[in-house]
Amino acid sequence: MCMVIFAPIFAICAFATCGGYYGHLQVKVDCAARRHNNVSINIDFGYPFRLQQVYFKAPLCEAKREEIVFLNGDFSAAAQFFVTVGVLAFLYSLLATIVYVFYQNKYLKNNRGPLVDFLVTVTFSLTWLLSSCCWAKSLTEIKTATNPTEVLLLISACREKENRCAATQEPFWSRLNTSAVFGFVNVILWSGNIWFVFKETGWYKTGQRYPSRTSSRKRSSEMREQDSFTEPRGDFDKQVQRQASINQSQVSFSLPETYLGKSVVYERENKIASQGPVIFVNEM
Known about the structure:
Elements: H1 2-19, E1 22-30, E2 39-46, E3 55-60, E4 65-70, H2 76-102, H3 104-108, H4 112-145, H5 148-154, E5 164-169, H6 174-198, H7 202-209, H8 213-250, E6 257-266, E7 274-282
């Protein structure tokens, strides 16, 4: 959802601020011979920053004629690469938004949509990083090539000490600086979106459903250690039970046995004799 909302906006801001840039530089040449006084020179440049094709006419103080001066440097490769990545990222963001909203079922079918989205997101993250770094480096070189001090050194009249040259207007770099900042913002945005797209793929679900081999091996080793710990204890309990059964078998408990004998007549003095059975107790 974060990519759907912000990716097209930041992509537009990145390539629009770079592709629509227009710079203007103005210098003034004042010759000591008074043949050319306060001559203003306007130098215009812009995207794609082929500065070697930008030229202007500068006066020659020793004669009534002019020279054609070209700027130095060709930075079109980095600038066009940056703009191309921004345009493609914008188009893909719009396409992804349409798929997410109207074709969600087809997007999730057979897990092809998330896999393609994941690969494209990783690709755009890398290309944004590469193009932003190249563009930031080229922007520094463009500022150096269009620096008034460097431009005045290209003019023959300004290399002579008796003539006076100065810059009356310098280019504004805030727009190009903003484009470089938006480039790195897109790097962060697309790199952070990798995780959210990865969660929709089957790779993430497979990793959650099935534990890794290392964890399963660890659990099996722990179970084996527990079994090895419980087995000796179980054997010890069995031995105790066997010893107890042996002792019980060896020790016999018997009650005294009784039986009836023949009747015996007991005689007492001056009393009648009584008869009855005699009880014998056999103690063990």
